[in-house]
Structure formats: structure tokens, C-alpha cells
Design brief:
The chain is of the alpha/beta class. The chain contains twelve helices and ten strands. It has three domains: 122 residues, Butyryl-Coa Dehydrogenase, subunit A, domain 1 (Orthogonal Bundle); 111 residues, Butyryl-CoA Dehydrogenase, subunit A, domain 2 (Beta Barrel), CATH 2.40.110.10; 147 residues, Butyryl-CoA Dehydrogenase, subunit A, domain 3, CATH 1.20.140.10.
């Protein structure tokens, strides 16, 4: 059980807490049981998504008028934390799926919402966010080079995308592209919903990483892929005027989930070790101090997450940017710090693949560099604290 989820429970609408119970059961049951195997096999956790599909969780954030759960941010973060505590890769990819639902809610036409939300709720369709590119970085100014051109009564898409989570599992790729000859992203950024079985798509099978191994974040090449007008989502550049905070909110929840899992394992290990020592012995005192440090670390991440979620809808844009960046930083640093200190606390047994601490550590590391990267966060928070303009992400 993720403590931060329980902190949020009292703030959830009465009809939404059942979703949290469902996520806790799945997270601490089947998802946790499969996590090590998915990591070892370096493949997408299709079994976990079958469970998410059957439970109705894939439609968790779909508006109620389209048959979904229609949950608010409080419930979403609680649910996502529980999923990530059981399996970090499932949590991270689930956030990508739900982020696209959020984007569609903001910019899709009524007919598009009806089509895609129906497929999510009734068919269990999975949606992928395809944004990153191999020659560009969110650490600085992100440049969209994937090109889309008008072709008679439709479009053609060309380019290569990187870190495409859900690449082998999604029915649709929500892809960022740039209209040929456009001068700025404001008049040239097109978001398109590409069916994953469309001719001209190649999944590169190049995802072999230290952590988050089960996200299937392969590169994808689009070679003259045909798109119809009704597969364009929103007008050019409109997404840049919308609230994109859902992504970062979800990242925070995922890494708090990893921190919770690592911290719970540290507590279990410490209680076992204390059985061998006198209460006031040097060995027991060392363990008390170790757990004390970890407790303070995770509590900072929990409270930052709780505060962000509860205040998100009432914050100004600058204040939201400030709190989003702080919460993401504290969550990812907590996951990494608790996992690496937990591994040291366990000694040589900590590096055993038969025990989960080494996987918690490996899954925590990507959070330090996922956008916004933590060194970028420090700069942004510093600017905002000084009353200057600061942006989480910049596009060109």
C-alpha cells in the first residue's frame, strides 16, 4: 500500500475510492509478482495490461459522458502510485496512455472523442505518446523534425521518433509532427493519431536499457505514412496553448510509487535485522538512523505530491510550474536515494536479482533524466523563486 495514496483517499469523491482499492489489489498482487520477470525478459507487460483492461482501469480518465471513469487528479495520482509501486514500467506506460486521453479531452473534436474514447472503454485500446526525437533533447530547446506534408486529400508523415513507450502494445500513436515549410511551431505543429498497423511504420526494436526495461520504448520510423484529415487532432499549434501538466503530474506519481516500494522493503529488512541485536546496541542505533533518514526523504516527496495534487486546479501558471517541478524533483530523487541507500543497507544481498532492491534502483535512475530532467528543474525552480520567467519545457 502506498502511503501517499492513503493520504489522498480522504480527498477523493466518494464514488471514486473503489478505483484506489482496485489498483492496490492489482499492484500488490499480480503486477508485483510479474515485475521481475518483465524486467528480465525486457518486454512489454501485456499480461498486466490485460488486467488493466479487464478491470476497467484503461478508461480511468476517460470522461464519464463517454463511458469512462472520469476521475479527478486526486484519484488518478493515488491509483497511479499504487500501480507503479507494483510495477514501475506498467505505471510509467499507463501514465503515457492516460496523458493522451487528457490531450484528446482538451483538443479533439466531438467525433474524435467519441471514436477514440469508445475504443479505449469498450475495446481496451491502448494509446501511446510519440514525441521525443533522437537528435533533440527536452533538456534544452526541443526541436520537432518529424515532418508532415499535405498530399491530395490527406497527409504524409516522415521521420524517426525515439523513446516511444508502448511501441509494441498501442493501437494508436499520438504523434507530434511539423508541417513542411511552417516557420514556427505555433503555426506548424500538428498532432496526429496514427494507427499502429498503418503501412510505412517500422518499430526499431532498440530498447535495451538499465531500468524501465518493460516499457517497450523502442524507436519508431515513419516512412511516407498516409494520414487522413480526421486523424489530425486539433488545429496547428493548439496543444502548446493547453495544459500539459498531466505528464509531469504522472511522472511524480510513478516515482513516488517506486520510492514507496523501496522504502517498504527497507522497513521489512530493518525489522528482520533488529531481531538479532539488543535495542540500544550500536548495530540497532545504526539501523534506526538509516530508517530515519529514509523516512524523512520519502515524507518530503509524499507531502510535495499531496500538495501539488490538491492545489493543482487553483494555481496560477507560474505557481503550477514551480510546484510541478519541485514535486517531480523530490519524487525522483527520493526513489533513487532510498533505493541506493537501501541497497547499501542490505549489503551484498542487495545486488541479488532474486531480491527487488536492485530493480527499484535501476527503475529509479531514468526518472533523474526524464523530462524535465532534474538539472533543468533546478534551474527552472531557481528562476521562479527569483521572480523570473521559467519554463518546464521549451519547443522550437
Amino acid at each position: 500500500m502506498a502511503v501517499v495514496a492513503e493520504l489522498l483517499r480522504s480527498h477523493m469523491p466518494a464514488d471514486q475510492s473503489d478505483w484506489l482499492d482496485l489498483a492496490q489489489t492489482l499492484g500488490q498482487g499480480k503486477l508485483r509478482e510479474r515485475a521481475a520477470r518483465m524486467d528480465e525478459e525486457n518486454r512489454f507487460p501485456f499480461e498486466n495490461y490485460d488486467d488493466l483492461r479487464q478491470s476497467g482501469l484503461l478508461g480511468l480518465t476517460v470522461p464519464k459522458e463517454f463511458g469512462g471513469g472520469g476521475v479527478d487528479s486526486v484519484t488518478y495520482v493515488g491509483v497511479l502510485t499504487e500501480i507503479a509501486q507494483g510495477c514501475a514500467s506498467t505505471g510509467l506506460t499507463f501514465n503515457m496512455h492516460c496523458a493522451i486521453i487528457d490531450f484528446l479531452t482538451q483538443i479533439a473534436s466531438p467525433d474524435q472523442k467519441k471514436k477514440y474514447f469508445n475504443e479505449v472503454v469498450n475495446d481496451g485500446a491502448v494509446l501511446a505518446s510519440i514525441t521525443s526525437e533522437p537528435a533533440s533533447s527536452f533538456r534544452d530547446v526541443f526541436r520537432v523534425k518529424t515532418q508532415i506534408v499535405q498530399d491530395d486529400d490527406g497527409y504524409r508523415l516522415n521521420g524517426t521518433k525515439a523513446w516511444c513507450s508502448l511501441s509494441t502494445a498501442a493501437r494508436y500513436y499520438f504523434t507530434w509532427s511539423r508541417l513542411k515549410h511552417s516557420e514556427t511551431l505555433a503555426d506548424g505543429l500538428l498532432n496526429v493519431m496514427v494507427p499502429s498497423d498503418r503501412p510505412g511504420i517500422e518499430i526499431m526494436d532498440d530498447w535495451d536499457t538499465l531500468g524501465m526495461r518493460a516499457t517497450a520504448s523502442n524507436s519508431i520510423k515513419f516512412d511516407n505514412v498516409r494520414l487522413e484529415h480526421d486523424e489530425v487532432i486539433g488545429s496547428p499549434g493548439v496543444i502548446l496553448t493547453k495544459d500539459l501538466s498531466f505528464w509531469s503530474l504522472g511522472y511524480t506519481a510513478v516515482y513516488v510509487g517506486i520510492a514507496e516500494a523501496a522504502y517498504a522493503y527497507c522497513l521489512e529488512h530493518a525489522r528482520t535485522q533488529l531481531e538479532y541485536f539488543e535495542e540500544d546496541s550500536a548495530q540497532a542505533t545504526r539501523i534506526h538512523r538509516q530508517i530515519g533518514e529514509l523516512s524523512i526523504t520519502i515524507e518530503s516527496a509524499r507531502r510535495a505530491t499531496q500538495t501539488l495534487v490538491l492545489l493543482r486546479s487553483s494555481l496560477s501558471k507560474a505557481d503550477l510550474t514551480y510546484m510541478l517541478n519541485q514535486a517531480k524533483y523530490l519524487a525522483t530523487e527520493a526513489a533513487y536515494d532510498i533505493a541506493q541507500k537501501g541497497l547499501r543497507m542490505m549489503g551484498g544481498t542487495g545486488i541479488s536479482r532474486n531480491l527487488p532492491m536492485q530493480q527499484y534502483l535501476r527503475d529509479a535512475i531514468p526518472g533523474l533524466v526524464m523530462p524535465p530532467a532534474n538539472d533543468r528543474i533546478i534551474e527552472t525552480v531557481g528562476k521562479l523563486a527569483l521572480g523570473l520567467s521559467g519554463k518546464t519545457l521549451e519547443f522550437r
